[in-house]
Amino acid sequence: MTQVRISRPGATPRARLLVGILAVAVLAGCATPDPLTPTVAGTYTTRPMTNGAQIIPPTNNPPPAGPSPESCGALASLRPGPQPPPGQMPPGGSLAEIASRGRLIVGVDQNTNPFSFRDPTTGTLQGFDIDVAKEITKDIFGDPAKVEFRLLTSAGRFTALEHNDVDVVVHATAITCERAQRVAFSTEYFRAFQRIMVPRGSDITGPADLAGKRVCTFVDTTSLPTVQRVAPEATIVAVPDWDDCLVTMQKRQADATSTSDSLLAGLVSQDPHFQIVGPPMEDEEHWGIGVNKYKDDLVRFVNGTLDRLRADGTWMRLYDRWLAASLGPIAGPPPATYRD
């Protein structure tokens, strides 16, 4: 117990009175400690949700699966012609415009570890997609540093291409028949499978266990309707960025997260208290690089770069650097499919 001096020689009656009041207050504080901060009850509403999060209740009418990109020919891209040497783009067309500008403008995001994320130490953008974009830049200019990255939301990436705000989008984008109506795609440069991430020790082991659970996914992605089809009795927490799903899970505001296994692996690498479980939820995803629909010369050039990455081993080196530790070894990159 802390000793409190009640009075001192020469103190006035008023001073002695004030000291006495203080002593009573201190002694009362020692005898009755402040109550502890209330513990979180574990319900979904005890902490504020992520800004922009939407709660989508279970549905009796899940959206039908769209046609596969193979069925509508969306996976078949334009065959590359002879690649001009770096720094010698042909006159006219989008390549000449890019060369004249002196930089390639690439739409990316900064929240998709390990594809495109901001390194916390250097503040620079890094990842598999970032390196692919630099390879395209190197083939145009001979210098991979002549690239300008513009941060886009997933919802805004197609509009940015349509309005020519960016030259290409390298943004973990699945090729679909609907999207191929709006923009052009390169050949497939990555293949993924939608799965589930849960806390270690969770009783969720696959899609059948999602009924009655809260599942986090991205607000504008093919993953959301997939969850609605596979688990219509689940409540969806739709968030603006993939890192928001990690925070939502850490705050126990969702029981699971579902998207491409490659993106889930990036979340797990940030917090090993989570793990990926279950089989693929639907068919595989085919990722492509987005280009404005009317820039055929740029589509062919990008496909020429992707052909080089497959042939000279660069694609495998990038995979080993960024993805092999979390996704495991693979035989090689997905093959190119052309329509001409």
TrEMBL record:
Domain of life: Bacteria
Region (Disordered): 49-93
Signal peptide: 1-28
InterPro entries in the record: Bact_solute-bind_prot3, Solute-binding_3/MltF_N
Domain (Solute-binding protein family 3/N-terminal): residue spans on this chain: 103-326
Keyword NAD found: no
PROSITE patterns according to UniProt: PROKAR_LIPOPROTEIN
Cited CDD domains: PBP2_GluB
Recorded family membership: Belongs to the bacterial solute-binding protein 3 family.
A cellular component term, taken from the record's GO annotations: outer membrane-bounded periplasmic space
Key words of the record: Signal, Transport
Pfam families hit by this protein: SBP_bac_3
Any Gene Ontology biological process: amino acid transport
Protein name, per record: Polar amino acid transport system substrate-binding protein
Keyword Transport attributed: yes
